[in-house]
Amino acid sequence: MFMTIFLLLATISVYFYWICEKPKNFPPGPKWLPIIGSFPTLYKLKKKCGYAHLAFQELAKAYGPVVGLKLGKHKFVAISTNELVKKALLTDEFNGRPQGFFFRLRSFGKAKGVLFTEGSIWSQHRRFTLRRLKEFGLGQDTMVQQVEFEASNFINFLGEQSKKGPVAMHTVFDLPVLNSLWQMFAGRRFEYDDAKVKEILDVVHDVFRTNDTMGGIISFMPFLRFIIPELSGYNHLMSTHEKLWGFLDEEIKLHEENLPTSQPRDLIDAFLMEIRDQTHLANREEQSIFDRENLLILCLDLFLAGSKTTTDSLSLIFAFLGRNVNYVKELQSELDDVLGRNCAPTLADVTRLPKIESFLAEAARYLIMAPMGVPHRSTNDVFFEGYEIPKDTIILMNFYSANNDEKVWKDPQEFRPQRFLDENGKLRSNSASIPFGVGKRRCLGEVLARHTLFLFFASILHYYDVSPSPDHPLPELLGYDGFVISPKPYYLKLTPRQTNF
Question: Is 299 part of any known ligand binding site?
Fold first, then answer.
């Protein structure tokens, strides 16, 4: 009996030593504990700093720009500085996606969709999505017309809202931004009084606030769902995703019931027709992506990523304006000088409004929107900056550090749109600015996002004076920590400007 107990304890000790031992030449970082890894250190830092990206900033100060840690059974490497973030994004072996519990739960335990897949599945999805979205307007005149139509409707809606008092700017962009995507994606748009879509947009905000870039504690220690399903967040996670799946499933059913025989009307039609006509795929070497589950998760990916980031970007930009109203008159002066009061802004005016564009470029750098981006995964063993990073390590890009790197940005804590203007006041590109990433995983919705940001922003300033609400506190620039930084509730006063048309 004594020998049995001794061998059992010895085995457990060896096991704990093995799981706590760092791989040879792994990047430096906090110590690893059995089962939970570096979670206590990260938790304390996050509690101290208030945000995950600031916790990683502290780790970078302590251990250098390449930090290694372990959360649960997963190895992580967090990469900081502008130079190294760009280098990592351009490293092919870092183009995988995490395979953890959270990232698979959202897609029925499988590799589905475009956001969290890799290899053949990802490349097929990306090729199909880009090709079809271009057919339905992405980057074309059709898309320009759709965005301009939504901007016009949005301005009219704001006119009605502003008559009632200060406007809730933290949610006001939700539906018009979604409509800019949904027309190409599902062939229709939502009305502003649609209670059902308002409810699902509330769920979207909830999902992004209650989950983080790393997948949360349920991804590090998935066994907790059996022990403390409520406290671990598992029940809430399932509830929100079931609502999202249900909403998108209904949209797909509407298309299935009225599927054209030949010409697709939108992306969902095109995917369903590929499913229907799969006979020509029988001899393909790669596994087909065309099944209903893949369509549902592709819808989920585009619905979440395609609308939430642009919505929050606009909300945070106007929160900044609410605290820095001196920029309002300056930007309106450019609009008036270039367009006059008789013409509405259009997407053709982008190059004519360098102050507007430089302001948006600096806002993307300065404001905390998606400070850790979307997590990557090493698909092979990688030698990076003198360290050996094993296959299946989750790679976190600290975009916040890239945007505040003093080596490439002078006085990064200051808001200076002039960074993006040359000596003649013309817009200039800056290779240090990477709001949509670089490399193969660069955001596929970049064109639509840029157009929507510019036109909605310029249109509001053209038609309205923007000022703080006398009945509410000033907007906060530090939002809720989560998968992105979500704006906290705030209100602004929008006063119609006089026009001659």
Answer: no
